[in-house]
Amino acid sequence: MKLIIISIYLLFITSIVSFSQNSDFIRPLRQISNSEFKLEIEDSISILLPKVGNTQIKLSKVSNWGDPGDFHLVEIINSKYSKSFSNLDGWVKFNQNYPVNDELKNMNQTNTDLFLVTSNENQSLLILFGWVYTSDPGLCTVIDLNNGTIVYNQNSELTSISLKKGTLTFSEKLTVECYGYTK
Question: Is residue 183 situated within a structural domain?
Fold first, then answer.
């Protein structure tokens, strides 16, 4: 019985992974170029974030796109940096295809269902969701808004965010440390 308890404890401890320790959590995006497709602005939101200040998040969509995806390009602009990320597979509004529970929705610091922004005094995260295909979870892209880098990008179902512990938890029973992370 003690062996089972120790095994379960070790499994739990090893399932908490820091972004900075494991780049296996960052799957490459299928990039698009502006010369390949015509893009049109879908939405633009400004938000005041700790450590970064006023940040504008612009979303653009490929014109006349027939496949899933509410937007394909994310531009993040503030006084510290200007970065853009594209995803030919597209990101989607949450809860139209990618399930997001009420706890997560209530943590969103914006009034949009296109993405989640959550922060504490140390860290600000932008969380984007991809299309769910059959039984595969959709893409979950997490961008560190303190420096504009992708810190997580995998097909995973995000189930909780703990601002106090600084972790993201996914349905695969994977918990990833995120707050306080710097590259």
Answer: no
